[in-house]
Specification:
- The complex is a heterodimer of chains A (about 400) and B (about 375).
- By secondary structure, chain A is an alpha/beta fold.
- Chain A has 16 helices and ten strands.
- With about 375 residues, chain B is of the alpha/beta class.
- About 10% of the residues of chain B have low confidence.
- Classes of the chains: A alpha/beta (about 400), B alpha/beta (about 375).
- At the A-B interface, α3, α12, α14 and α16 of A face α2, α13, α15 and α17 of B.
């Protein structure tokens, strides 16, 4: 099908087929794809580009899965393995909270006069509103440890939103607590879990998945956890790891599964395409490593995705996932430059200030580890968008719209 | 096809939709380079000295003569660097340094002659501020200086030191550096005696859109006369470790400790200082906008380089669809941008892979853009 026909569909607001999305991936007309995605983004979010002030906590890098694309994980007892106690987590959150406050108010003094948008002009909250927690599948920690972690964070910071645990961790918790997924989720929710990130989706295609993360739950299982989370009233994100062994067709199929689930539940907030980072991962080792499960040779992947592929993937996601309210250009993964351009290719969210990112940086992320509020606002404005500081449910934070539910 | 006017260019720069502008630039690039080849050169950036009397505020590389970190490369160091370059398939060295008060033209003539006698290598060297400084110290005209250097072995001249060709801005960011007219004079004289050069532009400091257009127009006009520019390379100001990016209060604190920062603009400009404190580096969108406009406006300059050194590989790939057709140098060694805190370590193989991943055919070229190796 020619792009012209698909273009008409987009303009008419009709749903794209798998073939349409595939045709976009196979086209090199990034200008048309970008322009259409920008139109689609405008229909959902106007000129808004969201960001959040958040803090990442990775309680441990000890993981029983040891996925081949991961440079963060360690086995127990291995050099570099670490475990954070709940006390240490609270301490991190407290220190960063005051450090960031000082830094931000300093920034505000010098930058405030420049802010154009009504959403941020009057905003003076000095610190992060969300804590993002993901970690390895620790072989010894009991389920109660995680419940305790959530409770203690809520006791110390009652207004902080806790977005925590990928579907992979939830599945693991259900196994170690010997209860069903739904019961596991309900207990976590009661302890303070507010929403869930979208990690661990990787690529759903079984063949590619078995090569890059044979120990991880299957795509079907991942989707199942998400469906149960949505049904339990927990909003989540969804990710896709691309740029490794998958084909364009795998990407489209991955997004189709997500679109189908979203039709049923409406529980996904944002879709986040994640570009594969090769450094220090098993997939980038030169040796002839063989996957334990499939016994196939693991190809040598020593490359980053191209900037063009990153932008195209964002754009096609925006066009194909017509029932997802948000497409996130996660700057930690894309680098701040490509993330900014992504705002012109259909993305409407840059994620956040992200204090202390560890996972992507283990694999040679090209981005910095902290972005200030002023930097984020500058990137958004220079992309011709309106910066909107948001809470974890995409409600603008600020004097004019505070407390109003997000109806964008 | 009608030529873009200055007025049109200004409108495009200020208000065109970036994707639209990119598409226009992409079309110009396709017309000029229809085969989808993206070229690069294997060369080494050799900075013979970091001693410089100019002390530009956007520079993190220069040192005072007496600074403990000041250096001048010995011949042996230089030869070793050239040997390594040739071993890596390199065909060119880019020799640039600071304006060292104790090196005269005899030093450079000797350097060029001995390198040429020892190595079969193209010497791309000495930006216009260096040429002018050599001429001043020797009491020679620019033309004569160029002839002497050319005879000694200088093959071509890099386009550095252009910064923004607007004296109003140069006065603020590089008050001691040669002005617009002298920069142009060096280029024009070089072109007239058959020395090819490139042209650069550093934007994203304190210039206005009008200054960018003025710069592009100046290059286009000189190219009309001489046709001596092989390529245009826009790049953005990298604020790390530079005086231009220091907040005024931080600056005054540092100047107590660091002699390098003591030397201030003789006439401190209060508006400049105010802008410094909130100077945000040019973003990706700004870079692509200027790059695309350069491709559109400079219809008589054959090649536009993407600056992966300042922008990173992913951005350089995107730049190939916003007007650029060349990946510049593989930069076996780069010191100046690295001094400003920007490090993008890349191998020749990475460059080839990146060009392919962006959908183009990589080819190794020389300084004249002759392809010397294809099907990589």
């Amino acid at each position: 099908m020619s792009l012209k026909k698909i273009e008409k569909k987009v303009i008419a607001g009709r749903r794209l087929t798998k073939d349409d999305a595939l045709a976009f991936f196979e086209s090199d007309d990034i200008f048309t794809i970008g322009r259409l995605a920008n139109i689609a983004a405008g229909r959902k979010n106007g000129k808004n580009a969201y960001f959040i002030q958040n803090h990442h906590i990775n309680p441990t890098n000890i993981c029983v899965n040891r996925c081949k694309f991961c440079a963060f994980s360690r086995s127990k007892g291995e050099k570099g393995a670490y475990e954070l106690s709940i006390r240490e987590i609270i301490k991190k959150l407290k220190t960063q909270r005051s450090a960031v406050s000082g830094q931000q108010s300093e920034k505000l003094k010098t930058q405030n006069s420049k802010f154009r948008t009504k959403f941020v002009t009057h905003h003076s909250s000095p610190s992060y509103t969300e804590v993002h927690i993901v970690g390895g599948l620790h072989p010894d920690w009991p389920f109660e440890y995680y419940l305790e972690m959530l409770k203690k964070i809520k006791t110390n910071f009652p207004n902080i939103h806790i977005k925590a645990f990928t579907a992979v961790e939830i599945d693991y918790f259900s196994k170690i607590s010997e209860q069903g997924i739904t019961d596991t989720l309900k207990e976590l929710k009661k302890a303070g879990l507010d929403s869930m990130p979208g990690g661990g989706a990787e690529i759903f295609n079984t063949q590619a998945r078995n090569k890059i993360c044979p120990e991880k739950i299957t795509g079907k299982e991942w989707l199942n956890v998400m469906e149960k989370a949505h049904n339990a009233g927990i909003k989540t994100n969804a990710t896709m790891l691309y740029g490794h062994l998958e084909t364009y067709k795998h990407r489209v199929e991955h997004m189709l599964r997500l679109r189908e689930l979203q039709d049923r539940t409406g529980g996904f907030q944002a879709f986040i395409p994640l570009a594969f980072h090769p450094m220090n991962t098993e997939l980038s080792q030169k040796s002839e490593v063989r996957s334990q499960k499939s016994n196939l040779p693991i190809p040598n992947l020593n490359r980053y995705t191209s900037g063009i592929d990153d932008l195209k993937t964002i754009a096609i996601a925006r066009l194909f996932l017509d029932n997802f309210p948000h497409i996130k250009a996660y700057w930690i993964m894309l680098g701040e430059k490509i993330a900014q351009l992504a705002l012109m290719f259909g993305a409407d969210d840059l994620d956040g200030t992200i204090i202390e990112e560890k996972i992507t940086h283990s694999a040679g992320a090209l981005s910095g580890t902290v972005m200030t509020r002023a930097q984020l606002i500058n990137l958004i404005e220079k992309a011709g968008k309106v910066p909107v500081e948001r809470d974890s449910f995409y409600r603008p934070i600020g004097a004019t719209l505070r407390g109003r539910p997000n109806k964008l | 096809m009608n030529r873009t006017t200055k007025k049109e260019a200004l409108t495009l720069l200020k208000s065109a939709d970036l994707l639209g502008l990119g598409q226009m630039a992409d079309n110009v690039r396709k017309r000029l380079h229809p085969k989808g080849i993206v070229s690069f050169i294997i060369d080494r950036n050799i900075n013979y000295t970091n001693v410089c009397i100019n002390r530009c505020k956007f520079c993190a590389f220069y040192r005072d003569k007496n600074d403990p970190e000041a250096y001048v490369l010995s011949k042996r160091q230089l030869y070793n660097k050239i040997k390594e370059t040739i071993a890596l398939g390199g065909t060119q060295i880019l020799i640039q340094g600071g304006l060292h008060p104790e090196l005269d033209i005899n030093y450079y003539v000797d350097l060029l002659k001995t390198v040429k006698a020892k190595f079969p290598i193209h010497i791309h060297g000495f930006s216009p501020p260096e040429i002018c400084y050599m001429a001043d110290i020797a009491g020679l005209t620019i033309k004569r200086t160029l002839q002497i250097l050319n005879e000694a072995g200088l093959d071509s001249i890099p386009g550095g030191g252009a910064e923004i060709l607007s004296d109003r801005i140069r006065e603020k960011i590089s008050p001691k550096k040669i002005g617009k007219d002298r920069w142009l004079e060096v280029m024009e004289q070089a072109h007239r005696i058959g020395i090819k050069t490139t042209a650069t532009m550093m934007f994203g400091s304190i210039e206005e859109p009008e200054d960018i257009i003025e710069h592009l127009d100046t290059i286009r006009k000189l190219q009309e006369k001489t046709n001596g520019f092989t390529a245009f390379i826009p790049w953005s100001f990298q604020p790390g470790n530079t005086e231009l990016s220091q907040k005024s209060e931080v600056r005054s604190q540092k100047s107590k400790k660091n002699s390098k920062l003591k030397i201030q603009n003789s006439k401190p400009n209060s508006s400049l200082v105010t802008r410094h404190s909130s100077l945000q580096p040019a973003t990706a969108a700004d870079y692509l906008r200027v790059l695309a406009l350069s491709r559109i406006y400079l219809d008589n300059v054959p090649n536009i380089q993407a600056s992966w050194v300042t922008q990173g590989i992913k951005m350089a790939q995107v730049a190939l669809r916003f007007g650029a057709n060349d990946f510049g140098s593989t930069m076996i060694e780069e010191n100046v941008v690295a001094a400003a805190g920007v490090k993008h370590r890349v191998s020749i193989n990475d460059i080839i892979t990146s060009i392919k991943a962006a959908g183009f055919k990589p080819a190794q070229r020389d300084m004249y853009y002759n392809i010397i190796k294809r099907d990589l």
